[in-house]
Design a protein that fits this description.
By secondary structure, the chain is of the alpha/beta class. The chain has 3 domains: 46 residues; 45 residues; 172 residues, Nucleotidyltransferase, domain 5 (2-Layer Sandwich), CATH 3.30.420.10. Helix content is 42%, strand content 9%. The chain contains 11 helices and 5 strands. It has a 5-stranded mixed sheet, sandwiched between helices. Helix 8 links the parallel strand 4 and strand 5. Helix 7 packs parallel to helix 8. The longest helix is centred in the N-terminal third of the chain and has 16 residues. The chain is elongated and about 100 Å long. 23% of the residues are buried.
């Protein structure tokens, strides 16, 4: 049911007053002109719907589609039901169509003959592979330290990096500060990680960055220094699918929590100051913080329980 607008109510009241007291008095009372009242009195047929504003849309346009063009569009749409707007326009243009793409779009939309494309296949993630023991697989990634945390004029403009390794079984985490992020820094980080982790490491998982692998460089067949050190320790290197950081989700999530719990509240005046604060934060806060996936145990407690059971 169409709604009755305030303008319609106003016009009805105006007409009734004019019929009772005259057009002149109605014009004075309602602060309008006599022509306005006469126009709506002529249009009024006893129903309030006759007082509704009529469409101002023109009945025709000098640039509207010609009958020949309309026939061409419908014929081509029957033969190309799934062609997109630009492809469809090009096909029409090859047959003499001279209208613009926006003009064609408006016509197709008005006629309801836009191409309907089936939805893209829904992404179905693979079941997550659960780890059975610490060291089975460790995720490694690098985080850029926010420049807003650097306060000393001597370090403003420089870049510091946080290397992070997180064990998928226990969520135990090892972090280290570096002034560069390259394959040498990555190799040194692995050496320190192997010494710090209490159990043998079987697999290291990283993204496809050049600091880890030459997979997408011109030296794709040459192992990086990082991979050489992994091989020396008998550790398998696994790279995730390109452009899918969710496959390294545990370390990515830990970096997000670092922004909330560490970088948002700390400032650094030198690289040594940053390295010291980062080490203390990881030891006191992260590895001793109870986590829901671990049954509200801390990573240190889970690792300790496993070592006591073997």
């Amino acid at each position: 049911m169409a709604t009755i607008t305030q303008d319609m109510r106003y016009r009805l009241s105006l007409i009734k007053y004019a019929e009772r007291f005259g057009v002149t008095k109605a014009a004075i009372k309602y602060k309008t002109n006599r022509q306005y009242i006469y126009r709506w009195k002529r249009r009024y047929d006893g129903s309030i719907e006759s007082l509704r504003d009529r469409s101002r849309r023109p009945h025709h346009h000098p640039n509207q589609q010609t009958p020949e063009e309309i026939k061409l569009i419908f014929d081509m749409r029957r033969r190309n039901p799934n062609a997109g707007l630009v492809v469809f326009w090009v096909k029409l243009k090859q047959r003499g169509y001279s209208r613009s793409i926006p003009g064609l779009y408006r016509f197709l939309r008005k006629q309801g003959i836009m191409a309907v494309h089936p939805p893209n296949p829904k992404y179905i993630p693979k079941p997550y592979e659960q780890m059975d023991y610490p060291g089975q697989r460790i995720q490694v990634d690098v985080k850029f330290v926010p420049s807003a945390c650097l306060k000393n004029p001597k370090v403003i403009g420089k870049q510091f990096f946080q290397y992070t390794a997180i064990d998928e079984y226990s969520r135990w985490r090892f972090v280290e500060a570096f002034e560069e992020h390259n394959t040498y820094s990555s190799a040194m980080f692995i050496e320190h990680l192997v010494k710090a982790f209490p159990l043998p490491i079987q697999c290291i998982q990283t993204d496809n960055g050049a600091k880890f692998t030459n997979r997408f460089t011109t030296h794709r067949d040459k192992p990086t220094l990082f991979q050489v050190h992994l091989k020396q320790h008998g550790i398998r290197h696994k790279v995730i699918r390109p452009f899918t950081p969710r496959h390294n989700g545990k370390v990515e999530r830990s970096h997000r929590k670092d922004n909330e719990r560490f970088y948002a509240t700390h400032t650094f005046y030198s690289f040594e100051d940053f390295a010291k604060q980062l080490k203390v934060y990881n030891r006191r806060d992260y590895n001793n913080f109870p986590m829901r996936p671990l049954g509200w145990k801390s990573p240190n407690q889970v690792l300790k329980d496993y070592l006591a059971s073997v």
